Amino acid sequence: MDRLSQLLWLWMLFFAVNALWALAQAAVASTLGARPVSVVLGYGPTLLSARLGSILWAFRPLALGSAVSFDEPIEGAPAKSRLLQLSPSLHAAVILLPWAVQVAIAMACLGPTEALRQFVSGFAVPFEPSLLPGRVERFLAILRDGDLLRAWGLMSAKLAALNLLPLPALAGGTFLLLPWRKGYPVWAGLLGILGLLAAVPWVLYVLYVVIKALV
Q: End-to-end CA distance of the chain, in Å?
């Protein structure tokens, strides 16, 4: 598999994991009584968009994440999240169940034992930067061998773990802040800023390691 093919498969795997997360969250929320306002797959400029039912769907080319919005615009007032209509327990289900779906996908691809091992070890990934180049090389070797099912399982398990870390911008942090969901305190905003300042260099480092491994 040449470098261009590896890059294409990386894009497809990232897009698949993020798109399935967004679809799972939209489905869970709709089932529990909080229909999303919009579902955006990817980042960057909007290439395609359509309104299906009452939900605006959009496709963007950068497969680094997706977004599901529940903020309902109210004329003359700040937007209000439809998730606030749910009880805290149902709101928690909307946050956590989509990532449980990713772990289930990893189990289907890798087997339950291996998937859970990869999921648990995924929580340590941001704190082991020296191990990242080797991990990226091994992952790209899996792609070169054409074992796409294993690659999908590994990415699903690792991204589920990373998104459940207790940072305000991630699912784990949002879950921990549920007691203050109707009005976040000042300290939560400060934690969010600090988390973002810590996350940006790490993300840039990951991109650097991936690009270096591909060229």
A: 13
